[in-house]
Every structure is written in C-alpha cells, then in structure tokens.
Specification:
Blueprint lengths: L1 E3 L2 E3 L8 H10 L7 H8 L9 H11 L5 H21 L24 H13 L3 H13 L3 H5 L6 E2 L4 E4 L8 E4 L2 H8 L15 H15 L6 H15 L4 H8 L4 H5 L7 H13 L4
Antiparallel strand pairs: 1-2, 3-4, 4-5
Helix pairs in contact: 1-4, 2-4, 3-4, 5-9, 6-8, 6-10, 10-11
C-alpha cells in the first residue's frame, strides 16, 4: 500500500522503491532530518533488494572520513527508519542493520567558579559580550547550544526574566528562567525581532569562540555542553536542589539521564562526614 494525495492504493512491484518508501514515510509524519543524501543514494532501488551490508557501505560513502557516531546518526538511523516503514507496508522483509562501533566519549568535568570567573573576565576584556551572555544562558538555564543559537528577539521577556525556547531537542516549546546576572547581560545586547539574540548561528561558531577565549585566559577548554548542561546539573545538586526540581528546571525527562550529567568530587568522603555528623550528634 502507498499513501497518495488521493488516499491509499496498492503498490506494484516496480513501485516499491526506497524513494517511494521514503515519500510514504514522510507523508505519515516521519522526520525528514538527514534523509536527503540517503534517499539520493538508494534512489530507484527496490527496497526488497537492499541488504544490511549495503546500508553500512552507504554510510561510509556518503560520509567519508566521518566518525562512526556521525555515520550511525546521519546515515544508518534514517535508512533504518525508511526500511522499517517499507517492511510495515509489506514491501520487504525486516532488515537488521548493525551500527558501527563507537568509542565512548570522554566526558569533561563541569566548570567551577574560578574557571567561570577567568573565562568571563577574558571574554569581556575581548569585547565578546555576546559570548559571555550565551555562556551564562547555557550554564544558568541548562540550555543546549542549538537552543541558545535559535533564540530570537521576540523570544526574550526581560521584565519576567524568561526566554521561550521555540525549538528544543524534544521538539516541544519550553520556558527558560533567567538568573539576575543572565538577564542583565542579555538586556544589554542589541535585540531585534526575527534576529538571533546571541548572533551565533551554530554550535561550531560558539565552540570555536569558547576555545579561543580559553587559550587567551590560559584555562582548560570546555565545550558548550559541558559548561552548560553538565555544569547546571552538577551545581544544582551541590546546592541541594531536589533532583526532581533540578530535572524539571533543566528539562531532563528521566533521573538516569540527569544523574549522568552530575559530577560529585569525593562522594565517599561526603557520605562519611554525613554519617559522622548523625552518629555523634547527641554526644
């Protein structure tokens, strides 16, 4: 069966192509993210003739020299979605495509107050006020760098100290609540409706600027996700914010994912001291 503008109709064998399956997938509400190069690679191919090894080879050819994680995310995942949809239409058998093995990423620790002070001092000295503001926003509001880059003038409400995150990773609108420092810095940026508040258009431009400032400040580099969401989560727990409150404030969905962002130094010593204070409280 195929979904057309006139409704469902039976598909002839020569119509059961990868690009036809992709069209049906999109008409049924599937995500078009990363699909274009995958569709182009398999254009005209009958889905019943595609085997898993070809899908993996497609990833290598479409994204030469890229890391395994990139190939898995931008090639194999969308291809699987189309082939699974084709299977649901009865056009082909189920196909299992193994992901490429990826190295476990090195997670850098959250930044502390000393690091932040040196970074902001250097950024301000360099006249990079937009960078200082976006770093405060990511850190104080657990904003992803893509969310920060997408903030437009009309999304900012300085009076109520909020920013509307129009497009998030979960594809739902959300509200970020600003600290006083963050609100002050954003209020002093030139803002116009329809224009990016922080000026940066991508994570790469933000992280390139962060790296340059770190070099001049002679501090260890931290990428946007580390000094943003990881630092937010770590600081919230250290300040005694309940896990549920911190999760909701930073828009995490599950405790397991949230706690993976939290860095606790000397956890065993902290627990031991708590036990000591309880055990000998009445002596």
């Amino acid at each position: 069966m195929m979904l057309t503008e006139h409704g469902w109709k039976a598909a002839n064998d020569n119509e059961k192509t990868f690009d036809a399956a992709a069209d049906s997938y999109l008409r049924m509400g599937g995500s078009q993210r990363y699909l274009a190069p995958v569709i182009e690679y398999f254009r005209g191919r009958l889905v019943a003739t595609i085997v898993s090894a070809e899908v993996r080879q497609m990833g290598i050819e479409v994204f030469p020299g890229c890391k395994a994680a990139t190939i898995n995310r931008q090639a194999l995942t969308p291809a699987r979605a189309i082939l699974n949809h084709a299977h649901e239409l009865g056009w082909c058998s189920a196909i299992r495509v193994r992901s490429f093995k990826t190295e476990k990423p090195i997670k850098l620790p959250a930044v502390n107050g000393e690091w932040m002070s040196k970074f902001i001092s250097q950024a301000d000295a360099d006249g990079l006020y937009h960078l200082s503001a976006i770093v405060f926003f990511m850190q104080d509001c657990a904003a992803r760098v893509s969310e920060a880059c997408n903030v437009l003038g009309e999304h900012v409400d300085i009076r109520n100290k909020t920013i509307r995150l129009a497009k998030t990773k979960t594809e739902t609108n959300a509200t970020a609540y600003l600290t006083d420092e963050c609100a002050y810095r954003i209020a002093h940026l030139p803002m116009k409706e329809g224009e990016r508040v922080f000026r940066y258009s991508s994570r790469w431009s933000v992280n390139d600027r962060i790296a340059a400032v770190c070099r001049r400040a002679q501090i260890e580099y931290r990428p946007s996700h580390t000094l943003g969401r990881r630092t937010y989560a770590t600081r919230a727990i250290k300040l005694g914010v309940p896990i549920k409150v911190a999760m909701d404030g930073g828009r995490w969905k599950t405790p397991a994912v949230f706690l993976g962002y939290v860095d606790i130094d000397n956890a065993g010593r902290i627990v031991a001291e708590k036990i000591n204070s309880h055990r000998y409280a009445n002596l």
